[in-house]
Design a protein that fits this description.
single chain, Rossmann fold, 18 helices, 8 strands, 10% strand, binds 1,4-dihydronicotinamide adenine dinucleotide, binds 1,3-dihydroxyacetonephosphate
């Protein structure tokens, strides 16, 4: 059992781990609400520049940050510092999260646990673990149950411009999701809570794979019909994968599902779309990754998704084609042609909802009796 700190009030102490596009964007958002924000960065020059000029020299370079944000690091913060925090917000790419959590765990007081929020959108390669499982492995099931996940259509650049934005906020501990929603909620930033963190996480990770597919199609010169097909068939694939995994199919119709899928499949502001677009234009993955300058979670997640899909025995032809282009050197035009030559099939056939991986994860968390369908939709 953990005991969590109370609802962060108007003057809370927040530590944002990660000073990339999204970490700095959320630091700015919370700084605007008068919280004392600390932003942990690994780059010494970034820290120095940020504290002098209130600008991030690498990410969101044109944005003026509120004065009440201090950059800290690059050593991991010590226990005394973490003890003082009301909120720890992890904006670290998925593939690096485990190592960082291993360092943080000994510094967490489970009798006075800060609100723990995770915003990364990916699946770990090698283990095929969702972030929930990475937290359970490194910090134990009780801390994983208290963790909250934020996902949805939310480009960092647009949040700092205060463009109206909405996200999904989910946790197995509803009171923690409500605390996180209250912390972030602003007139230009709406938060909707839900209780299917597995579905929220899966949808946020999967949409990146289809954003690569959509970018690839645009890069090849295909037009609107084709993009709409990829978005819609992508949603069908995501929902089938999620259902077989054990998440609620309805979660995929929410902000973290179709909302973020639509956003990232239709905008060149998306790094994942951009990877696909450049592949479609004929660049090699190696060149793209060397020059992108920012993380595209979908590239590693595609590898993990391929294994998840194969293990589940679900048909996911678009995700499998993206995998073949990224990892088997398949020509992008050939991938599209082969997808179009598949025989006709039923438009949507959801697999049984018994859901192996989610069941195993729920068991690991001591939540074996939880029904993700009913916690997301209490009246079902
Ligand atoms: N940028 C956006 O609009 C959004 C991003 N996200 C998610 O947030 C997460 C972070 O993305 P961005 O900030 O955009 O990425 P970014 O590429 O802008 O920044 C990456 C950050 O990760 C840090 N990093 C690199 N290696 C690390 C390591 N070994 N340990 C700890 N930190 C390390 C870098 O120093 C940098 O601060 C991703 O999972 C992304 O999918 C979610 C919603 C929106
Ligand atoms: O997830 C995102 C916006 O919701 C950001 O997408 P990219 O990582 O593809 O840029």
């Amino acid at each position: 059992m953990v005991t969590s700190k109370p609802q962060p009030d108007s003057n809370s102490k927040v530590l944002v781990l990660g000073a990339g596009n999204f970490g700095s964007c959320l630091a700015s958002h919370l700084g605007d609400s008068q919280h004392d924000v600390f932003m942990w960065a690994r780059e010494p020059d970034l820290i120095k520049h940020f504290n002098l000029h209130h600008r991030n020299p690498i990410y969101l370079v044109d944005h003026d940050f509120p004065q009440n944000i201090a950059a800290v690091g690059p050593e991991q913060p010590d226990k005394e510092f973490i003890d003082k925090m009301d909120v720890l917000l992890f904006a670290i790419p998925t593939q690096f999260l485990r190592a960082n959590l291993e360092q943080i765990r000994p510094k967490l007081d489970i009798n006075n646990l800060p609100l723990l929020i995770f915003v990364n959108k990916g699946i770990e390669i090698g283990t095929h673990a969702l972030t929930l499982e990475i937290i359970a492995d490194t910090c134990g099931p009780d801390i994983a149950k208290a963790a909250t996940f934020i996902s949805g259509p939310s480009f960092a650049k647009e949040i700092v411009e205060r463009q109206p934005t909405s996200v999904s906020v989910a946790s197995f501990t509803e009171s923690e999701a409500v605390k996180a929603a209250n912390l972030f909620h602003q007139p230009h930033f709406r938060c909707y809570t839900g209780g299917d963190p597995i579905g929220i996480e899966l949808s946020g990770a999967l949409k990146n794979v289809y954003a690569i597919a959509s970018g690839m199609s645009d890069g090849l010169g295909f037009l609107n019909n084709t993009r709409a097909m990829i978005i819609t068939r992508g949603l069908a694939e995501m929902t089938c994968i999620g259902t077989a995994y054990g998440a609620s199919p309805l979660t995929f119709l929410g902000l973290s599902g179709v909302g973020d899928l639509f956003l990232t499949c239709s905008s060149s502001n998306s790094r994942n779309y951009t990877v696909g677009y450049r592949l479609g234009k004929g660049e090699s993955l190696e060149t793209i990754m060397k020059t992108l300058g920012s993380v595209a979670e979908g590239v590693s997640t595609t590898k993990a998704v391929k294994k998840v899909v194969d293990d589940l025995g679900v048909s996911a032809p678009i995700a499998s084609s993206v995998y073949d282009v990224l990892y088997n050197g398949k020509d992008t035009k050939l991938a599209v042609r082969q997808l179009m030559e598949l025989p006709p099939s039923r438009e949507l056939e959801l697999p049984p909802t018994a859901g192996g991986p989610a069941r195993q994860l729920l068991r690991k968390l001591g939540l074996e009796n939880t029904d993700l369908n009913t916690i997301m939709h209490p009246h079902l």
